[in-house]
């Protein structure tokens, strides 16, 4: 048998250095889609390894948090919920908020948490944060199933919940929230390669951000108040409010706020990927 010469050899993949900051090579992400799904499976399984209740924690956690909100914000603070059953109102806000916070905190540690893998094998680094966003959709689906049960119960027991075709917008709202968390997350992950303090600051900031987001109160509660503009600056406020609106048929969804969230998502993804693209070239020297 005559061995192949160099001229006859063919390669499935040729790895080339990126020539500029805008050399994004997004087509590589599709080429590594099978690896991405492996990471999705890995992330989901790793959450429940050596646990007793497994995925049931995704149901227990929002139930316990909702009960606490009912006591503190419903009974003690007496914050209105737009005439919606308080338990359903809080659970809806928590469902979409938990997805955002889980995606943001996980993607923000992309480089530091996966340095061992990055140092051994080549693949587009952006595959990791994208897989995180996708794997957390499984968690969202579980909690959304719980929300459906609760909303259905209240709907058939005379509570004013107006189900409509607006429910078809839920996938778009989820994509918008995923895009914002991915964009902001990869920006923070790029910063934390050099400044580890940001990871500590992030966990604290996420806790505070929840209170600047209409999770425990409706936006209509702030209407006419002179500090409402601070809440409007939060790009996920309109996303959370829209999520509750399409489910309950009540809420203050302002088109300009929703447009602001969409523009913020595209800007965060664009500039986030540019920064991510630059940092991934040399992050192994600093991590």
TrEMBL record:
PROSITE patterns linked to this entry: ABC_TM2
One Pfam family per UniProt: ABC2_membrane
Family matches, as InterPro entries: ABC2_TM, ABC2_TM_bact-type, ABC_2_transport
Localisation per UniProt entry: Cell inner membrane; Cell membrane
Cellular component, GO, one term: ATP-binding cassette (ABC) transporter complex
Any Gene Ontology biological process: lipopolysaccharide transport
GO molecular function: ABC-type transporter activity
Membrane topology: Multi-pass membrane protein
Domain ABC transmembrane type-2 intervals: 53-279
Residues passing through the membrane, by range: 56-76, 96-118, 130-156, 168-188, 200-220, 258-276
This protein's UniProt keywords: Cell inner membrane, Cell membrane, Membrane, Transmembrane, Transmembrane helix, Transport
Similarity annotation: Belongs to the ABC-2 integral membrane protein family.
Record's protein name: Transport permease protein
Native organism: Pelobium manganitolerans
């Amino acid at each position: 048998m005559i061995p192949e010469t160099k001229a006859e050899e063919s390669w499935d993949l040729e790895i080339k250095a990126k020539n500029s900051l805008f050399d994004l090579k997004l087509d590589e992400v599709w080429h590594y889609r099978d690896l991405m799904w492996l990471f999705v499976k890995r992330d989901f399984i790793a959450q429940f390894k050596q646990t007793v209740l497994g995925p049931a924690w995704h149901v227990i956690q929002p139930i316990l948090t909702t009960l606490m909100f009912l006591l503190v914000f419903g009974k003690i603070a007496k914050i209105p919920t737009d005439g919606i059953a308080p338990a359903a109102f809080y659970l809806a806000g928590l469902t979409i908020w938990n997805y955002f916070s889980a995606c943001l905190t996980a993607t923000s540690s992309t480089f530091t948490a996966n340095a061992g893998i990055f140092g051994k094998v080549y693949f587009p680094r952006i595959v990791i944060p994208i897989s995180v966003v996708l794997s957390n959709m499984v968690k969202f689906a579980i909690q959304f199933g719980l929300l459906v049960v609760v909303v259905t119960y209240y709907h058939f027991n005379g509570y004013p919940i107006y189900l409509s075709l607006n429910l078809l917008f839920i996938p778009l709202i989820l994509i918008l929230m995923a895009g914002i968390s991915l964009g902001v997350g990869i920006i923070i992950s790029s910063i934390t390669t050099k400044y580890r303090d940001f990871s500590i600051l992030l966990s604290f900031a996420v806790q505070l951000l929840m209170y600047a987001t209409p999770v425990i109160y409706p936006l209509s509660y702030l209407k006419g108040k002179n500090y409402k503009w601070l809440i409007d600056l939060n790009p996920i406020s309109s996303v959370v409010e829209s999520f509750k609106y399409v489910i309950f048929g009540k809420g203050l969804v302002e088109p300009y706020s929703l447009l602001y969230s969409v523009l913020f998502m595209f800007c965060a993804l664009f500039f986030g990927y540019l920064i991510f693209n630059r940092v991934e070239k040399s992050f192994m020297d600093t991590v």
